[in-house]
Specification:
Blueprint: E1 2-6, H1 15-28, E2 32-35, H2 43-52, E3 58-61, E4 64-65, H3 71-84, E5 89-94, H4 98-103, H5 112-127, E6 134-135, E7 140-141, E8 164-167, H6 171-180, E9 183-187, H7 194-207, E10 216-225, H8 229-234, H9 237-246, H10 254-261, H11 265-276, H12 280-285, H13 289-295, E11 297-299, H14 301-314, E12 318-323, H15 327-344
Parallel strand pairs: 1-2, 1-12, 2-3, 3-5, 4-5, 5-8, 8-9, 9-10, 10-11, 10-12
Antiparallel strand pairs: 6-7
Helix pairs in contact: 1-15, 2-3, 3-5, 6-7, 9-11, 10-11, 14-15
């Protein structure tokens, strides 16, 4: 199992601290640094900034939003980042959600599985430097009734294949991840529930004659170091409440639905009801400790090492951490994770 760093969103006064974290992770031998985007900083610009000031660590989008870029533009960006970084780019994609897709990008959130399938088909076609001709339900290239012609990407990516990842939560999307992608970007990954999620991915792999060999399972987990696990958990309650309660509408919140499938149905409803009523502190307090303990790295170095053993045994191949606390505490957290991985005996 390898280590990754999740730097989340930028542009909120945290840019210098995030860059320092990326440099520290690079020096410590971390495998990859991921950057997110929603409706603030875009991931591509940040990744080029990080790549320019690191030497070994891979850079990854977690995620590029599918509704935010055409497939051809995504391929252009991926090829450029791979070239600028010397072959260190990983392309993580996701459909986002209805509120951002329709409210920010003006793209209908309909048939996300079909759209994702067509999207990555075109991206891979372009990155193979084929002339892009595509007849799909959502994308048609070139348009048939105008002067457009089939074009070929002019940039030569450093590698023959840029690794692709999908951020997926639901069963059908997990199956699609296994079928079409090289890795899975997971959120709220629980070793106790992992078998069910990975079974869907395995089904997708089997569809195209592949096994899980070489497939990258990449959960992103908050990490809080301390003597008291419950006190550590209290510092990330807001994060879990935001996703379970506020990332989507009452009718369509993928993270809330995931918590339900994980066995936290009553708590998921309570957290969502409180959050949507703007009772944010109460919503955070309602997140069960058991949910946080399953989906985060909490406690002493020894406790984190034990959790790493469980995660590796469940199928995790790249453990991406989000260290908490002040900038100095975050740097210390990066070092603690390296020491815990060594102590666990599951590093590679």
């Amino acid at each position: 199992m390898k280590l990754g760093l999740n730097m989340g969103y930028w542009g909120m006064g945290n840019d210098a601290a995030n860059l320092a974290l990326a440099k520290e992770a690079d020096a410590l031998g971390y495998n990859v640094a991921w950057v997110a985007e929603a409706y603030g900083s875009d991931a591509a610009t940040i990744l080029s900034w990080v790549a320019a000031q690191t030497t070994q660590i891979d850079i990854g989008s977690a995620i590029f939003q599918i509704p935010g870029r055409t497939p051809a533009n995504c391929a252009m960006t991926a090829a450029t980042l791979d070239s600028l970084s010397g072959g260190r780019f990983r392309l993580g994609l996701g459909v986002s959600g209805p509120q951002v897709s329709e409210g920010w990008h003006g793209v209908r959130f309909d048939k996300p599985l079909e759209r994702t399938r067509e999207y990555v088909d075109i991206v891979n076609m372009a990155l193979r430097r084929e002339r892009v001709k595509y007849q799909g339900k959502h994308y048609v290239l070139p348009l048939p009734d105008g002067p457009g012609k089939a074009l070929q990407l002019t940039v030569h990516p450093v590698r023959d294949h840029i690794p692709t990842y999908l951020a997926s939560v639901g069963p059908k999307n997990l199956e699609l991840t296994g079928e079409l992608f090289d890795g899975w970007l997971a959120i709220f990954y629980s070793p106790e529930y992992a078998k069910e999620s990975l079974a869907h991915i395995e089904t997708g792999r089997a569809k195209v004659g592949k096994t899980m060999e070489g497939f990258d399972v990449v959960p992103s987990m908050p990490m809080i170091v301390g003597d008291d696990q419950r006190a550590c958990a209290d510092t990330i309650r807001w994060y879990a409440a935001l996703y379970i309660g506020g990332m989507g509408s009452r009718e369509k919140n993928f993270y809330n639905q995931l918590a339900v499938r994980m066995g936290f149905e009553a708590a998921a409803k309570e957290v969502q009801d409180l959050y949507l009523d703007k009772k944010y502190d109460e919503a955070a307090a309602a997140v069960p400790f058991e949910f946080l303990e399953q989906t985060a790295l909490l406690g002493s170095k020894e406790q984190i090492a034990e959790k790493m053993q469980v995660l590796a045994a469940s199928g995790v191949t790249t453990l991406t951490i989000t260290p908490g606390g002040s900038p100095e505490e975050q740097k210390a957290g990066l070092r603690t994770a390296v020491e815990a991985l060594e102590l666990s005996g599951v590093g590679s």
